[in-house]
Specification:
10 helices, alpha+beta, Structural Genomics Hypothetical 15.5 Kd Protein In mrcA-pckA Intergenic Region, Chain A, Ribosomal Protein S4 Delta 41, Chain A, domain 1, globular, 5 strands
Length: 210
């Protein structure tokens, strides 16, 4: 299975903003964007393009969205195609589909410090969806679904450490978290304004529409 194996902090530096890929490190002075706010590579510190092309701007927005949700190009493209066949604005549907992924919901609930950690925990069957063990990070959830930590996994330090930081991230209003039982409920599908994603998805639509 293909996966990104290089340093995650390089992705944030390339987009010149925090993508929150490293959990607690992103909130500390060790954050790479705070220390080196320029793209990686030998020419990064001198990255001063006189004129940025329209294609470049669109590509950077696509990369930003894709990297925040920690998925590769093929899966991102398939999600876009599904969004383009759905009712509603394609960009908003795309973001909602990405947001409804199981690994993202685990992250939004604060049950994992990052999406990469959430993906790993799901793959190792540490979570249940509607009382059934699951190991597919890309599963799409719907309103009313319940995600909870499996009983035998409730002692995992990774989960408890993340729970101690959950107040810093704030659980979105369309999710409900019971910290005592390590259980979260998807109350309703979010609107675009309810999704904390710093990106312009319309530029992604324009890029794929060429």
């Amino acid at each position: 299975m293909a996966r990104y194996t290089d340093a995650a902090c390089k992705l944030c530096r390339r987009e010149k903003q925090k993508l929150f890929l490293k959990g607690s490190k992103c909130f500390s002075e060790k954050c790479a964007v705070e220390r080196r706010a320029y793209p990686p590579g030998q020419h990064g510190i001198n990255d001063r393009r006189a004129k940025v092309k329209e294609y470049t701007t669109q590509l950077r927005e696509k990369q930003k969205v894709k990297r925040q949700y920690r998925i590769l190009e093929k899966q991102f493209r398939l999600t876009f195609e599904r969004a383009s066949r759905s009712k509603g604005a394609t960009g908003e549907v795309l973001v909602r589909l990405l947001e409804m992924r199981l690994d993202n919901i685990v992250y939004r609930l604060g049950l994992a410090p990052s999406r990469a950690a959430a993906r790993q925990l799901v793959l190792h069957r540490h979570f249940m969806l509607n009382n059934r063990p699951v190991n597919i990070p890309s599963m799409k959830l719907k309103a009313g679904d319940i995600v909870q930590v499996r009983p035998k996994s409730r002692s995992l330090e990774t989960i408890h450490e993340s729970m101690r930081r959950v107040t810093e991230r704030n659980v979105p209003g369309w999710l409900q978290l019971d910290k005592a039982t390590l259980k979260g409920t998807l109350l309703n599908l979010p609107e675009r304004a309810d999704i904390p994603l710093n990106a312009n998805e319309q530029l992604v639509v324009e890029l794929y529409s060429k």
